[in-house]
């Protein structure tokens, strides 16, 4: 079974703090993704990575950065957390095969910025 | 641009009722993939089905069935004889433009099945 794990289920941070959200997958997938999920807005892609050290902006990259130093790990960084970044953050990985496109999701991190 | 519309924000049914979740998509690609994911209260999205644009056959898996119609750009999901455990948010998604692995998600439909 594919397993995608995220470092925390719940996180509370203060405005201005630097926040790291970690994601690890164990299936040797090429692609990894970070989404945020907000009520009424569905899932919106923040960043994705299709290879180690490669990254591409998604639909809402402002205020975020990412790091992928190893194939299995993809980190989302909030350089200076703000209250409008309070959200559910979901990580996903995918095999990168044209015939699948299936993404496997982690359990999510509910981040509250106060 | 790719777009997925799930017009039903919330649906509430009584156990054993059949329920259909609608999904309408927009794309200029001739080759694309459509997905349904389930997000139970625990939060983790669970893959349900993938359908490519060349396969319009309907699919049935137990109480779940999917109706893909290219003519109306729809990929609807029906749960037959719903159960309380079906309560979740359901997302329809479309593969990204040009075959990109980025998925475009609809806003989701929250299904509540009451006993």
What does this structure look like?
The complex is a heterodimer of chains A (114) and B (115). With 114 residues, chain A is mainly beta. Chain A is 0% helix and 57% strand. Chain A has no helices and eleven strands. In chain A, strands 2, 4, 5, 6, 9, 10 and 11 form a seven-stranded mixed beta sheet that branches. Chain A has a four-stranded antiparallel beta sheet with strand order 1-3-8-7, with no helix packed on it. In chain A, strand 7 (64-70) and strand 8 form a beta hairpin. Chain A starts with a strand and ends with a strand. In chain B, strand 8 and strand 9 (74-79) form a beta hairpin. In chain B, the strands form three sheets. In chain B, strands 2, 5, 6, 10, 11 and 12 form a six-stranded mixed beta sheet that branches. Chain B is mainly beta. Chain B has strands spanning 3-5, 10-14, 19-21, 24-26, 33-39, 46-52, 59-61, 64-69, 74-79, 88-95, 103-105, 109-114. Chain B is globular. Chain B starts with a strand and ends with a strand. Helix content of chain B is 0%, strand content 52%. Classes of the chains: A mainly beta (114), B mainly beta (115). The interface between A and B is medium-sized, with 28 and 22 residues.
């Amino acid at each position: 079974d594919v397993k995608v794990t995220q470092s925390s289920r719940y996180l509370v941070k203060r405005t201005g703090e630097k926040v790291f959200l970690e994601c690890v997958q164990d299936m040797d997938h090429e692609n990894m993704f970070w989404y945020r999920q907000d009520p009424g807005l569905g899932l919106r892609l923040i960043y994705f990575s299709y290879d180690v050290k490669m990254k591409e902006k998604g639909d809402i990259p402002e205020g975020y950065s990412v790091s992928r130093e190893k194939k299995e790990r993809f980190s989302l960084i909030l350089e200076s957390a703000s209250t409008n970044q309070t959200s559910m953050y979901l990580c996903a990985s995918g095999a990168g095969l044209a015939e699948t496109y299936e993404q496997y999701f982690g359990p999510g991190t509910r981040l509250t910025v106060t | 641009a790719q777009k997925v519309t799930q017009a039903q924000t919330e649906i509430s049914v009584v156990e054993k009722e059949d329920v259909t979740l609608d999904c309408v998509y927009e794309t200029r690609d001739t080759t694309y993939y459509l997905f349904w994911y389930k997000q139970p209260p625990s939060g983790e999205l669970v893959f349900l089905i993938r359908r490519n644009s060349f396969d319009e056959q309907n699919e049935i898996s137990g109480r779940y069935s999917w109706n893909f119609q290219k003519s109306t750009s729809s990929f609807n999901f029906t749960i037959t004889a719903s159960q309380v455990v079906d309560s979740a948010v359901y997302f329809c998604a479309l593969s990204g433009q040009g075959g990109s692995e980025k998925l475009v998600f609809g806003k989701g439909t929250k299904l509540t099945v009451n006993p």
